[in-house]
Amino acid sequence: GAVVSQHPSWVICKSGTSVKIECRSLDFQATTMFWYRQFPKQSLMLMATSNEGSKATYEQGVEKDKFLINHASLTLSTLTVTSAHPEDSSFYICSARESRLMNEKLFFGSGTQLSVL
Amino acid sequence: DAKTTQPTSMDCAEGRAANLPCNHSTISGNEYVYWYRQIHSQGPQYIIHGLKNNETNEMASLIITEDRKSSTLILPHATLRDTAVYYCIVRVASSGNTPLVFGKGTRLSVIA
């Protein structure tokens, strides 16, 4: 099946610093990617929809100035957590759909565990 | 997208079939049933999906009732590595920019 590569797998940072997470579709083009956040023992919560060449669409309650999303190419979307604080510590997961398919499946990255000290 | 209801948790003996139920009584005619699973600290993994016919692949079988109001995911011979949270999601295929919306899922524990 299609592969979505997410990097890094885990990151530890100091409070106030920024962290960039990359999501790549390795063998298909993805005009749309999705970013999720997951807190311990909870389900995945959609943060935003990333569209190639246009601004991301954020879910209610997600600060667009804090979680910067860039989708500059058909195979790469990045999520930057700016001025991270301990409450931003979470498991971040990206997902992509292959542009060509009609009855599409969504493929997920392996996730990034962010720990803010 | 229609809402789904799943049991919070289930246990299954290793080597036995695991049958995971899902209710989706408000499903629309153009909505598919998707199953994903998430092993601890990993991203969700696609398992199977279907519209109204039963489906089978190398991972599992999907049985959808005739009225499409419920379905069952069957793992024919569960192994310890099948321990995960299983999510049943209904979604319109070809729905463009619509993401998957995850409920709480069923936590399956496969026991040796």
Task: Explain what this protein looks like in three dimensions.
The complex is a heterodimer of chains A (about 120) and B (about 110). Chain A is built from no helices and eleven strands. Chain A is mainly β. In chain A, strands 2, 4, 5, 6, 9, 10 and 11 form a seven-stranded mixed β-sheet that branches. The N and C termini of chain A lie far apart (about 35 Å). By secondary structure, chain B is mostly beta strands. In chain B, the strands form two sheets. Chain B has a five-stranded mixed β-sheet, with no helix packed on it. Chain B is globular, with a radius of gyration of 13 Å. The model of chain B has no long low-confidence stretch (mean pLDDT about 95). The chains are: A mainly beta (about 120), B mainly beta (about 110). The interface of A and B includes residues 1, 91, 103 and 109 of A.
Q: Considering DSSP H and I runs of 4 or more, what fraction of the residues of chain A is helical?
A: under 10%
User: What letter string, H or E per element, gives the SSE order of chain A?
Assistant: EEEEEEEEEEE
Low-confidence stretches of chain A: none
Largest sheet of chain A: 7 strands, mixed
Radius of gyration of chain B: 13 Å
Number of helices of chain A: 0
Beta strands of chain A, count: 11
Could you name the ranges of chain B where pLDDT drops below 50 across 5 or more consecutive residues? Answer: none
Please indicate the percent range of residues of chain A in DSSP E strands (runs of 2 or more): over 45%
- Find the structural class of chain B using helix and strand composition: mainly beta
Cα-to-Cα separation, first versus last residue of chain A: 37 Å
Strand order of the largest sheet of chain B: 1-9-8-3-4
Largest interface: A-B, 27 and 23 residues
In helices, the fraction of residues of chain B equals under 10%
Per DSSP, what share of the residues of chain B sits in E-state strands of 2 or more residues?
A: over 45%
Structural class estimated from helices and strands of chain A = mainly beta
